[in-house]
Amino acid sequence: MTRKCIxxxxxxxxxxxxxDNNRDRIIEAIREAKAAKATLILTPELCIxxxxxxxxxxxxxxxxxxxxxxxxxxxxxxxxxxxxxxxxAIQHQGSNYNARLIALSGExxxxxxxxxxxxxxxxxxxxxxxxxxxxxxxxxxxxxxxQALSRGQTVCPIGECALETLDASFTSETCEELWTxxxxxxxxxxxxxxxxxxxxxxxxxxxxLHTRINLIKEATAKTGGVYxxxxxxxxxxxxxxxxxxxxxxxxxxxxxxxxxFSLKDVEVHTAVVxxxxxxxxxxxxxxxxxxxxxxxxxxxxxxxxxxxxxMPEVEGMLVKPTGSREPRYHLPVEEIALGPACWLxxxxxxxxxxxxxxxLSGGIDSCATATIVxxxxxxxxxxxxxxxxxxxxxxxxxxxxxxxxxxxxSAEQLCNKIFTTVFMGMKQQSxxxxxxxxxxxxxxxxxxxxxxxxxxxxxxLHTLVSSTLDFDPKFKVHGGSQTENLALQNFQSRxxxxxxxxxxxxxxxxxxxxxxxxxxxxxxxxxxxxxGYLTKYDCSSADINPIGGISKTDLKAFIGxxxxxxxxxxxxxxxxxxxxxxxxxxxxxxxxxxxxxMGFTYDELSVLGRLRKxxxxxxxxxxxxxxxxWNDRMKPRDVYKKVRDFMYYYAINRHKMTTMxxxxxxxxxxxxxxxxxxxxxxxxxxxxxxxxxxxxxKKMEEGTAGVD
Length: 708
Hints:
This protein is α/β, with parallel strands linked by helices. A seven-stranded mixed sheet has the order 15-14-11-10-9-8-17, with helices on one face. Strands 5-4-3-2-1-16 form a six-stranded mixed sheet. Helix 23 packs antiparallel against helix 24. The termini are far apart.
């Protein structure tokens, strides 16, 4: 016997509460799957309303609207004669559930609620949903909008179950269930289920894709079987970028892998799978003994009459199964170039803004933001030239009524229309080098550039404060105190924020645009946010921040890569420059330096940040870890000073995180206060922890006394 079938998975750029367009993207995916002769298609988690609804999940409307859209999909003429696995949330017996709806030709075959909810990191699913108990299986009363269909169906099964066609079996495993220690797919394999469908809403994180693919490979290598993975892709209205990478695997081998970063709203992938090849992976006697476990036989099964997943035997004999391939992984620098660029494009087109504005300081952070915008323009141009009509329409709106628009414009031409950079200098503080670098970078990428000085704004504020207080503050280099020095720096920083927003609002209308302002982009990296090395309500305050989740170390690597890949020699000058805020006057003997101001190198901040968040260590734990890790660089007491200073500055500056610009999540130790890193913003002095470390140091120093 030959059992070969064509299975489809997809990645969709859904948007929260965008019901009509979400429906249309799902139907388009089903059309493409049917055109490829697929008999089953998997869609992303919660794809009907969108995944990131947050507290909108508590609204009754969401559940009613989702069912209305589901009915429009399963009754659509183009969506018949194919098994469809859809994502929506349902209400059942007074509780809300994240669920899968499996349908065929207008009939709801079953509803499979999510068993294990994701409730850490960026996810709060238990705030909205209840986990479905394993093994529970019962009837679900379908809503009136389904009962009104010509079939008159009133109930369907709901619960953990497998579905069986006349020639194959499949079941669902939703997102987080793959990541848990006791994943359901192990039981499903022992139960003889051949195909596992995993719908996900999994976000991009630097260097994370290896983990995801390895989990799926392990799931099918050890247990045998076919595994389909579908993921959302794009910005659906929040700080996350869902990174697609739909997969079809069989017996531990990758057959199909979707792109991780793209501007395509709909991407469908199919594979010809030989279900009989699964047998060889399931012949061990130990597996057979485990398959006799009563829990395995308790799995309920839903029969699907009069439908076959597989092609006729003779036809199948002539069709070659899809071969295996190596997984594709982007380098971290490529992830930085592509992920934030795609996120920015979604935000720009969906917000209906006229473009972006970034304060370009001549330093590497704002340089990285500008380079990512240029990367976005490169992607847009590539998609237009490839015939992407959705991207073409969005780009045409942004480009304006200029007769010069066409699908063949360059990235630099597009950049010139939608991106403005502005250097806001001070005559005494700003160096010629930073001003020139800002100008030259803008010219290289085609951005519209403004070069101006903010001295009048700052002087007006200085004069007003001095007259109000009858006190004239001075910079440190002119004999002022540290408090005066910091206040005068903040005069400049906050003036830049005010000017950036004024320009963002008025630039388009000053050029004759009918409506729409520029989105102001922030350029504070994750390490400076962690240390608090920024001014509250300065240029770190913006509409969105594409580098808010990226470390300085990774940003430097990205700029070095982009210099060659984007043919931008000017970027080399940013790498060679000493990072400086240029907020203090430059003298013959003094130039402000970021790392000197902070008391840490950026590499040290990355290490400390990961220990604090990713490894979940407190003050004492960080010290204990670093005493050995840094023993070739500094003495234990110097390590203590680093840890003590880090926690001191972290604590006194934590309040800044409560007002930080929404930044794209990319790094596991980001201090984002929105929902990822929930901490107080008023801290004690850590005297207990300091006393413990002092005692440890005393023992260490006593133990080494007299040792040469």
